Amino acid sequence: MFRIIFLLGLIAITLAIVWAVRSQLIQLAGTKQTLRQQSIDIANNLRQWRSLPAPALVGTLMRFFYLATLASVVLLALTGFLPVIILGEAVSNLALILHLLLAPFFAIGITALALFWAERHSFNNNDLERLRTGHREEESNGSQYDPNVWQKFCFWLSVLLAVPLIGSTILMMYPFYGTSGQEWLLHVHGYTGLMMLAVVVLHTYLVLASKGD
Predict the structure, then answer these.
(1) Closest residue by Cα to residue 46 from 32, 60, 34
(2) What's the CA gap between 72 and 188, in Å, rounded?
(3) Nearest-10 Cα torsion for 189, 97, 113, 198
(4) Which pLDDT belongs to residue 51?
(5) Where is mean pLDDT largest: 62-66, 146-150, 163-167, 181-185?
(6) Torsional sign, CA 162, 163, 168, 169
(7) Which terminus of the chain, N or C, has fewer Cβ atoms within 10 Å?
(8) pLDDT at 39
(9) What CA–CA distance (Å, rounded) separates 138 from 148?
(10) pLDDT above 70: percentage of residues in the chain
């Protein structure tokens, strides 16, 4: 059952991505160019971080942690889900080593994003009205990088999901639970990870869609 739910979840996420690309809601060429340019800008800014003003440095760190966390989520999903789906067994050997090595990068990245982005993603009085109007064009006096209400929901949901996702991993390292307890924690970790992947994919789509408007 565990394996079937994982498989159905990943198929649904894959189909959603394919639909978004085929419907031209996401332009692959434009996305690659955006990610490449963002990576170059971040690398250049980090090399010159001493000469950057504080707002520019904070903005660079925000983008760096976002891309690093996004990459860690993708790699963690590959090392965590593929052995379960393909082999039908728990993560072990090289996949487990890679999964454990990548986990601290995700934990640091999601924590940094929560600190850097919390204020920007706080809900305001206009969000309820924006929620009622769906994805209509928002008249905003803020920056073009200000998140919309849907991005805010995804952000806070990912932060909330990170708590049981990371917490279950930590608890499994201590001999406080029997076999059934360890299995329960493993299921919590797996299902939460699948939900986290879906939320990250949705948030990434919303960011790319907003840049294309």
Answers:
(1) 60
(2) 19
(3) -50
(4) 82
(5) 163-167
(6) positive
(7) N
(8) 83
(9) 8
(10) 86
The owner of tokens 């905003």 is: 140
For 13, the token pair is 């996420």
**Average pLDDT over the chain, rounded to whole?**
82
Task: Identify the burial level of 107 via C-beta atoms within 10 angstroms of its C-beta, where 0-12 means exposed, 13-18 middle and 19 or more buried.
Answer: middle
Number of helices (H), then strands (E), belonging to the chain: the values are 7, 0
Cβ atoms of 76 and 103 closer than 8 Å: yes
CB neighbours (10 Å) of residue 172? Answer: 17
8 Å CB contact between 69 and 109: yes
Q: What is the pLDDT of residues 73-119, one digit of tens each?
A: 999 988 888 887 777 777 778 888 999 899 999 999 999 999 888 88
How do the domains of the chain map onto residue ranges?
2-132+145-212
Identify the DSSP state of 167: H
Would you say domain 2-132+145-212 falls under CATH 1.25.40.10?
no
Q: How many angstroms separate the CA atoms of 128 and 146, rounded?
A: 16
166, amino acid identity: I
**Joined tokens for residue 100:** 């454990």
**Looking at per-residue confidence, does 124 or 103 come out higher?**
103
Matching residue, tokens 């360890």: 182
pTM recorded for the entire structure: 0.81
Please tell me what DSSP assigns to residue 50: G
Number of residues in the chain = 213
Amino acid identity of residue 123, one-letter, is F
